[in-house]
Specification:
Strand order of the largest sheet: 1-2-3-4-5-6-7-8-9-10
Oligomer: single chain
Shape: globular
Number of helices: 2
Strand content: 35-45%
Largest sheet: 10 strands, antiparallel, barrel
Helix content: under 10%
Amino acid sequence: MRRPLPGKSMAIPPVKPGCLSKLWRGLRAPGLAALLVLPAGAAGCDGPQYRQFDFWLGQWQVLRPDGRLAGYNHIQPIENGCVLHERYHTPTGYSGQSFTLFDAARSRWHQTWVDNQGGLLLLEGGLTEGKMVLEGESADGQQYHRISWSAGPDGRVRQHWQARSTGAKAPDWHTLFDGYYQRLPATPAPTPTPTSTPKVP
C-alpha cells in the first residue's frame, strides 16, 4: 500500500451517481471475473516449471566447506505448492525467512528475503544448466548479489552466494558464502509407554 505524502489530504472525493453500478457491471464481465476468482479446486501451480526448485525442499543443516555448522534451514511448500517458504536460523541468534515462487506472467523465479536485522533482498532468475540462479541488488543499491543452488548426486545441495559492487566497471565477484545443505535425519516417532491392564476381580 502506498503511504500518503506529508501534508496531503486523504479525503475521498464524492462518487458520481451511476459510477458504482458501472463498476459492478465491469467486475461482472466474464474475462475480468476469471482473473479475480479461480474456480473451486483449480490447481494454479501444477506445471513442471513450478517444480524446478523442489530439490531445495526439506529440513537441513547448513555446513561450511570445512564441515562446521553454519545454521539450520527448513523449506516447505505453502499456498497450494505455489510458494516455497524458507526459515533459517543460526546458533548465534541470527534468523531470516524467504518466500520464493515462479512468476508465470514473466516466466521468472522471484525470491524475497527478510531477516531479524532489518535486511531485505529481492532476487530474480531461473534454472540455468541445472542450477537455480537468482540475482538482484541490495536494498541500498551498493551491491549486486548472485546466489546459486545446485543438487548434488549425494543428496546434498550446494549454495554459492556471491556479491560485487554495483559501481565496478568490470564484474569483480567475491564469495559471501559457499556451503552445503545436508538433510537432517528424520525424527523417529515416540515409543508409546506401555500401560498395565487392570485386573478384573
